[in-house]
Amino acid sequence: MTMAPSANFMSVLCHSPVLRGGGLVFVLLLAVSGCATKGDIRLLEETLAEQKGQQDAQLLLISQEIQVLKSSLENQSNRLLDIRGDVGMDLTSIQDQLSQLSVLTGQVQRSMVALLERSPVNGNQNPVGLRIQQDPSQDLESDDGASFASPEQIYQAAMVQFNRGSFGTARRAFESFLVDYSDHRLAPSAQFFLADLLEQENSLDEAIESFLRILELHPTSDRVPQALYRVGSLFVIQGNIEEAVSHLERLINTYPESGPAELAQELLRGIR
Q1: pLDDT tens digit string along 161-205?
Q2: Domain-wise residue ranges, the chain
Q3: Which site from 38, 55, 191, 259 is most exposed, i.e. has the minimal number of CB atoms within 10 Å?
Q4: Is 183 exposed, middle or buried (0-12, 13-18, 19+ CB in 10 A)?
Q5: CATH of domain 90-129+149-271
Q6: Cα-based torsion angle of the residue sequence 58, 59, 63, 69 in order, rounded to the nearest 10 degrees
Q7: pTM for the whole structure
Q8: What φ, ψ does residue 175 adopt, rounded to 5°?
């Protein structure tokens, strides 16, 4: 037998604070129990409408914030692409300029060598204390007709070919000199100009190795600062900035008062 709820229970349930706090489950329960009034249902509808309005407002705010964030990310992405493009263009420009500078440096050095070798020093002696032959490519003969050539004469003949622009002949002459006279006082210079020739032939890896051989075999030579700068500049041309910075900083720290160190500082400012 079904028992109907008592009057006291219905009264308490209808006036419960739980109902006034809102809740569809409770209203349905009250409706089933027969104590929900039109006012209670209207109150619940108003409460639900208010909550829905708040939720809609929050969703709208979140949507606006997402849109702002999306727009900001797109702007940052575009700026990064622009920066990357600018950096790429700058690096390409630097590499092109450095390549031109390297060529000009080699030309200046060759011109200086040619000028020094033509200029008399201490009377009739040239800078390396040699008599310049009118035609160094000719065989040198002693008084008894035997062929001979001193290390200095071989080096001098190679330099004449170098200054004439006969790079193939000069390269072979320098290579021969270094094989036969690797410990000679002119060996660092022969190695330097051999590396210069390799660079002009666009054999950049071989040129770098040749310049570095000066540091390895002749660490006290005056050619070392120049070789370090040329190695750094070649690494920049190849796009190997890490190695370029390493050798340029070594030059600046070890030979801070040298001319190549000043050039290295300028080059570092351009690639950093």
Answers
A1: 999 999 999 999 999 999 999 999 999 999 999 999 999 999 999
A2: 11-80, 90-129+149-271
A3: 38
A4: exposed
A5: 1.25.40.10
A6: 50
A7: 0.51
A8: -60, -40
